[in-house]
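Protocol step 4 of 5: obtain the predicted structure for the target chain.
Materials: sequence only (see below). No template structures provided, no constraints applied. The aim of this step is simply to have a reference model before the mutagenesis design in step 5. Sequence pasted as it appears in the construct record:
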Amino acid sequence: MSLKIVVLIKQVPDITRVKFDAERGRIDRSSAEAEINPFDLNALEAAVQVKEKLGGTVVAISMGPQNAAVALRDALARGADEAILLEDNKFAGADTLATSYTLAGAIKKLGNFDIIFCGEKTVDGDTGQVGAEVAEFLQVPHLYYVSKVKEVKEDKIVVVSEMEEASYVVECEFPVLVSVTKDVNKPRLPTLREKLKAMKAEIKIWHAENLTDIINLSNVGYAGSPTVVSKVVVPKEKGREGKVFKEINEGIKVVLEELAKKGLI
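Step 4 output (structure tokens):
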């Protein structure tokens, strides 16, 4: 048995340090160091675990600038077998729809696949839309908010999906897209040997012209993005507010009133 598994990887800035370009309505990605989106590490680990159990190949795909190759090398060090970077100025400025369309086009170019793994969302966009949209473009079913992969067989996968206040055990035949939460596993750390090997590995670069037989370039990048950001506002963090009471009974009264307002008593 040999499964073909695709993992969607996104390079994101350190969200605790990144700055926002309010005038352009975008994240200033140059303001902080980049890393693999944390949820995508869980997706990659899920893919590698399936490969180790049943055999097959794991292909990591990312769309971004040339420096996104660093994230793909990290993916190779963590167990991916191949890495493809979709890099072109025509892809820049894409919203979730244009991004999903481009990623789906690249997957079509790869050919047949069994499973696509992705993280439930990215820490820079936090939309949780790309995975489902990729599945729609490929016309395959998708399983979302997967917290556990219970079983993988030759032609199907069984997972636990967390939906609202309930957990569902769902079975789906291949091909399928699986979007995982951070609870699905604990991503492995690459060894020094694996990192050195990944540094020498080939990163395939696909430009827009490599996909013209599959996608319409008017639907990619900024030109293909119907989403318009009219304004970006970064809320100020509020610190804790304290009150001092000279009389203990007065303090107790205020505490009880606040608890009652919140429905706690």
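Step 4 remarks: The mean pLDDT is 90. The chain has one domain: 3-224.
Proceed to step 5.
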